[in-house]
Amino acid sequence: MAAINLNKIFNKEFNESLVHQVATDYMSNQRSGTKAQKNRSAVSGGGAKPRPQKGSGRARAGTTRGPIWRKGGVTFAASPKDYNKKINKKMYKNAMNCIFSELNRKERLFCVEDFNVTEPKTKAFLAELAKLKITNTLLIVQEGKINVFLAGRNLKNVEIVSPHGVNPYNLMRYDNVVIDSAILENIQGMTS
Questions:
Q1: Of 41, 50, 70, 110, which is the most buried if we count CB atoms within 10 A?
Q2: Domain residues for 115?
């Protein structure tokens, strides 16, 4: 596996505020926002007045589903929330270019000629990775390389993605990023 010089491709100045905004917006968009409980109006039942207004000596009550009752609703119940934030395409591309450029400057970005394994075995995958002498790695390869995906999917500190699966979060999460030279044009298209 021969290394390729990436200084000509990724040489953008790092814009921390842009990268922070895009990364936090991206992570916010990953939230499902489905947390919910039932308040007093959503809980089933409680339509009838449980006892007469006066005469029992107890506190007046109009429903059995108030928050202080057993089987009652939650006082300030959470409801589903939409955490989505819009990220402009130009901002996203610039942020991705900034991240790739910063990884390249810090010598954490590697481009290899052909990362492949002949059979879907983790041992073979680790042998290929050992040639690069790196750990905690994000590996970006072509979608058709099934053996690579199968061989490395069980490893703790390795994530294998296709060019479409690359995002700001996983680029910053790993210490090293390895790009297969066959998809370098795809990556360039994502960042320019």
A1: 110
A2: 16-31+87-191
